[in-house]
Design a protein that fits this description.
Distance between the termini: 47 Å
Order of helices and strands: HEEEEEE
Largest sheet: 6 strands, antiparallel
Structural class: alpha+beta
Strand content: 25-35%
Radius of gyration: 19 Å
Number of strands: 6
Strand order of the largest sheet: 3-2-1-4-5-6
Helix content: 25-40%
């Protein structure tokens, strides 16, 4: 009888574990993004969640674009950011002269 009671709580424990993992993973990324100074390229894009598009950079960090933070980013964009700031600048490579040009500055106020 005791095993049956424990089995009933298993799905709740699994869901709580999944929620906790994604919460701490996102918080860790946000903290690193805020603290670090970097210049990195967007190398991968993923929208498996359908409501959020994740842009992965060479430095291992990610930028999430969603309904609240709608960043118009593309693969190959260069991202620069100063330390201890949520502001980041996007540079896009021109198709004609193959040089990066300033496009826009965003505030990733997720910290």
């Amino acid at each position: 009888m005791e095993i049956k009671k424990i089995i009933h709580f298993y799905p709740i424990a699994v869901l709580l574990g999944i929620f906790t993992y994604f919460y701490w993973s996102g918080k860790s990324n946000d903290d690193k993004f805020y603290k670090l100074k970097f210049n990195s390229l967007i190398v991968e894009r993923n929208n498996w969640q359908l409501r959020t598009t994740e842009f992965y950079m060479q430095n291992g960090l990610r930028i999430d674009s969603n309904a609240i933070y709608d960043f118009k980013l593309k693969l190959g964009d260069s991202i620069t950011k100063d330390a201890n700031s949520d502001l980041f600048k996007v540079y896009r490579k021109d198709t004609v002269d193959k040089k990066y040009h300033f496009l826009i500055e965003y505030d990733n106020d997720s910290h």
